Amino acid sequence: MRVIYSEDHKLRDAKTELHDGQLVTPFEAPFRAEWILAAVKEAGFTDVVAPDAHGLETARKVHDPAYLDFLGVVWERWVAAGYKGEAIANSFPVRRTSQRVPDNIVGMIGHYANAADTSFTKGSYEAALASMRCALTGADWLHAGHRFAFALCRPPGHHAGIDLFGGYCFINNAGVAAQRLRDHGAAKVAVLDVDFHHGNGTQDIFYRRGDVFTASLHGDPIHAFPYFLGHADEKGEGNGLGANRNYPMPRGTPWEVWSAALDDALARIKLFGAEAIVLSLGVDTFERDPISFFKLTSQDFVRMGERIAAAGLPVLVCMEGGYGVPEIGPNVANVLKGLEA
Ligand code: OKS
Ligand code: ZN
Questions:
Q1: What does pTM read for this prediction?
Q2: Left, alpha or beta for 185 (phi > 0: left; psi -120 to 50: alpha)?
Q3: pLDDT for residue 199
């Protein structure tokens, strides 16, 4: 298992997250990647490399190029406007409003945001690029004939849509990696999202495409972020009809229920004919995660890896969520152990 990790994740070190009516220190913080890196090394995954110097060519195939341009300039525009704090969207295009992009930076950031929790800060763009490069380097590792890679992506990516950031995500690392695998010649690819939260960005990117199957297991959006997407009746459109599958689950969901959904998703990925799986791995399904409500145990993460490996496909693991508790590291390492078992 090759691990791809960049120190540049530390450039994303926001001080504010709008959470339950207060500006708090973000859950998605640099210590997460440090703890995960330490735990996977400790578990024997010592083949750790830095990402290759990829540009934005692949990202431009899954994101709106104007959105990527926005990510590159938003911080300097915010500073030039004279604002002192971190850049936070507070006004959004919603029902019955124009989708024209405002020139005003407050309007522009609202246009490109799907939530106000995620502050944009100095260094966030550079960190997001490094995170994307980890995923791309992992995709290249699979293309070179290897069965597994772990892209230790930070910031995460699965809430980043075609032209939207939020939920701690800016560039959809898993989506970019899936595109890279397609460009390398894989006719069909699957993105399997096991993070506690629905992969709304990934779904958005591939919803009308028949070449990339997307499946997400998550807290029911009636109760959980991202609230507005992730229901079981969202099955894809046009060429993508039948290539999206959602498994919303209730509070307190344990392994027995969760793993039945996993088995169904894996069966459909096989039936679809995917040649590789990009695994959006969040360990916020853990029973003591501070912002989620499933009941997976540390041992369940080993089983998760084993079941996914049993599908017999190459797997690129991309890091998504998992917060607060020291178990995030061991839980990630357990998935990797299960994959290689
Ligand atoms: C509100 C918290 C919003 C939850 C964001 C979820 C991020 C995540 N302050 N996505 O997978 O873990
Ligand atoms: Zn999550």
A1: 0.99
A2: left
A3: 99
Q: SS3 breakdown of the chain: % helix, strand, coil, rounded to 5?
A: 40, 15, 45
Mutate to test the pocket of ligand 1, among 15, 16, 117 (most ligand atoms within 8 A of CB): 117
Q: Which helix (H) or strand (E) holds 189?
A: strand 189-193
Residue with tokens 């998504």: 320
Angle at CA 316, nearest 5°, toward 178 and 56?
45
- Ligand 1: nearest atom to the Cα of 292: 12
pLDDT digits (tens, 9 = 90+) for 143-171: 999 999 999 999 999 999 999 999 999 99
Q: What 3-state class would DSSP assign to 296?
A: strand
Q: How far apart are CA 223 and CA 287, in angstroms?
A: 17
Name the residue with the closest Cα to ligand 1, atom 7: 167
Measured from the alpha carbon of residue 199, the closest ligand is 1
To the nearest 10°, the Cα dihedral for 195, 124, 68, 132? Answer: -50
* pLDDT given at position 38: 98
- The answer to whether 181 and 278 have CB atoms below 8 angstroms apart is yes
**Residues with C-beta atoms within 5 A of ion ligand 2:** 195-197, 282, 284, 321
Which atom from ligand 1 is nearest to the alpha carbon of 195? 11
Ligand nearest to the CA of 28: 1
- Which residues are marked as active site? 159
> Which residue owns the Cα nearest ligand 1 atom 12?
321
DSSP helix/strand/coil, 109: helix
pLDDT tens by residue, 280-311: 999 999 999 999 999 999 999 999 999 999 99
> Measuring CA to CA, which residue among 312, 136, 101, 321 is closest to residue 226?
321
Residue 117 alpha carbon, nearest atom of ligand 1: 9
Cβ atoms within 10 Å of 182's Cβ, excluding its own: 20
What ipTM goes with this model? 0.98
Q: Report the length, in residues, of the chain.
A: 341
Ligand 1 pocket by Cβ (under 6 Å): 17, 19, 117, 158-159, 167-168, 195, 197, 225, 282, 284, 291, 320-321
